[in-house]
Amino acid sequence: MTHNLHLYNTLSRKKEKFVAINAPFVGMYVCGPTVYSDVHLGNCRTFMSFDLIYRYLKHLGYKVRYVRNITDAGHLEGDRDEGDDKFTKKAKLLQVEPMEIVQKYTVGFRDIMALFNTLPPSIEPTATGHIIEQQEIAKKIIENKFAYEVNGTVYFDVEKYSKTNNYGELTNRKLEDLLENTRELDGQDEKKGRLDFALWIKAKPEHLMQWPSPWGMGFPGWHIECSAMSTKYLGETFDIHGGGMDLQATHHTNEIAQNIAYCGKSPANYWMHTNMLTVNGARMSKSAGNSFLPLELFSGDHALLSKGYSPMTVRFFMMQTHYRSTLDFSDEALSGSEKAFNRLMDSYKTLQQLSASATSSENIPELKAKCYEAMDDDFNTPVLIAHLFEAVRIINSANDKKTQLTQADIDLLKTIYNDFIIDIMGLKVEEEGGKASEALEKVMQLVLDMRAKAKANKDFATSDEIRNKLTAAGIQVKDGKDGATWNL
């Protein structure tokens, strides 16, 4: 079957046919997490969406180099290249080395991604591992007259760049509008222009993460990190660049400008962005008390949840909405997804037991073609899932002897399940009964770690609440000298 894959390109604001630069090789770069805190659901949705894309490209036969970075330096608190970076702030608060913060949350991020059954990227570089590359790009941009140095900090000159390039092309905004919505320089600011951003930042003596540079001791700006790592591993121009939609206006806009100023080329042919999360129709935020951590979803330890949901249920729930559409979380929606996911997986078991007929009353090849058409249309998982539930109807009808399927039909349905549910969507059959699945074991270990941390911080109310909720869910926790254990 010939695949006519189209994807929505944020840069052109339309669906475009996908043509790899060096087929069958595909270069894909996705902005990874900033590892100074626990991974949030917005991150999870983005990385699950690009895991799906990665899986489908591989399924089609492409050789994909998937690069997903780890931001472990240079991410400042403010939006004007000022203040401490988040790693330094947390390290000072906890009185530890910044790289202890990085290690802890990097491991936690990978553990959560493993629970969601995402494939690891081909390369997972870190910002701190590419300081020299970032400095070399900054030097070249200065040489090309698109950046300037002031007192040890290097700034990108946005207004000068805009004289020959369209700075706001990714978001379709004009420079005049951007300037109008930006605060005036207060006279103390050393930048030339209001939109100028830092490529390299001079470090204060007390700053914990700093490196020598041609401009003195300092650390990289956030945006240049991705330019350095994507260029090193995928070249000056590659196929797909992705991330959350919150990165469009500043981070990805500045990446494009940096690359063009550095080498005269836009970094990617296709820009893809996932949409935001809401909860019961309201924007998800910590201040509103409606944000979720993945472990809270798994354990049910949240005021807005009636129970916990398995990682595969959450993954399936996220795929019921297109990656470019807003995804609304609610306990009711998750409960509905759990029932639908179980129905889908139950039909897979039923499929294994079907008896073949001599003739067929269903068009299974057409159903398979429709599944591919859905994925070829900008990875349209909601439509794909609708076709998969048509397969559920056919399987159940055949099991009730209301529909006839030949052995070829049954074999093709097995292929559809294995290809689209297991391989492409990344869903796994979850075990039933008293035997805990590997995923549940990992979830429980993370929950017990949360409880142990609460006890160590003398937060006994939280520790007891976790234990009580686990008991109510039928999970017994036993404390011992070597830590807590659990059983069903």
* Average pLDDT taken over every residue: 91
CATH domain topology of the largest domain: Rossmann fold
Q: Strands across the major sheet, in which order?
A: 4-3-9-10
Total beta-strand segments: 15
**What is the CATH top level name of the largest domain?**
Alpha Beta
Question: CATH H level of the largest domain: which superfamily?
Answer: HUPs
Q: Could you describe the largest sheet, including whether it forms a barrel?
A: 4 strands, parallel
Q: State the helix count.
A: 16
**Molecular shape:** globular
* Share in β-strands: 5-15%
The N- and C-terminal alpha carbons lie at a distance of: 47 Å
Radius of gyration over C-alpha positions, nearest whole angstrom = 25 Å
